[in-house]
Structure formats: C-alpha cells, structure tokens
Amino acid sequence: MGSLVKLIDALLFLLLLAIAFETPLIEGQACLPITLYPDFLVELRSWYAGEVGDYLMTETPDFYVGIIWVELLFQWPLVLVNLYGILAGKHWFNTTCLSYGISLFTGMVPIFAELTRSGRAPEKLLTVYYSFLSLGVVAVLRGLLPNSSSTKFSSATIGKRPASGRKKRV
To answer: What is the pTM of this model?
Structure first.
C-alpha cells in the first residue's frame, strides 16, 4: 500500500506543480487586470482558448469569474500547501489534499453543467475539463488514504499517550 500511495503522491505533485503556475498566470487573467500580465502570457491564454475551443475563458461569464476567484483565493494556496506537504511528508497533508479535492470537484459542477447544457463545448474542451475533474477525484481519494511514511503522528498513535517509564503502584 505504501508504494501505491507514494506513486499517487508523485503524480499529484507533478499535477499540482503545473497548477501552481497555471492558476495565477493563465486563469487569473479572467478576473485580474490584463495589464498585470506580460504579452506572451496573454497570447498563450488566447492560443489555448482558440485551440481547445474554451469559450468560458474567452467570454468569461460571471459564474466562471466567481469560480476563478475561488481558485485564486482558496484553491491556489491549498495547492502550495499540498506541494509542501508532499515534499516534507507532513501529517496534515491528507486533510489539505481532501479539502483541495472537494473544492476542485465542487467547482467543476457548474462548469460541466454549462458545458453540457449549452451544447457549445467541443470534445477537446470536455477532455480538458474531465482531466481537472479527475484530479479532484484523485485528490479526494488520496486525502482518504493513510500517509505513505510512518511518522510519530500515524493513526496508531494519535490520541494515545506515551507509556510512562515508571511502574504504577498497586
């Protein structure tokens, strides 16, 4: 089980590392002033939106801008904390990973409702958003798994006091 958890952690680390850069640099353009971004990032976002057919990124409806604000203010800090938690093997990583996965999955619900009900989403765009939905599921499942390394905070020792070196009087 430990090697499977480590493999999932490695996969999550790579995906979260990409998201750590993508969220503020690309998606942040939907709600922050465009003058904050260099031209090559603005062009990269335009290229992506045209290549994949991401009409949400080009039209920026109000609900989408709200989801991006949640990503910037809540999910992005969790991504950074999760990256640190994976690298340092922190005992609280399960909790933050679970929180991130649930938030990501919940944010995908209105996006998928729009994509499927509008009939405007090309297959390529659905594939991109399915990958984010899958990341949310993996993060939730990883949050429910035990830590890959045994630490002093493992589930076997939480809530138990260390044994005293003295014998009890009877």
So the answer is: 0.82
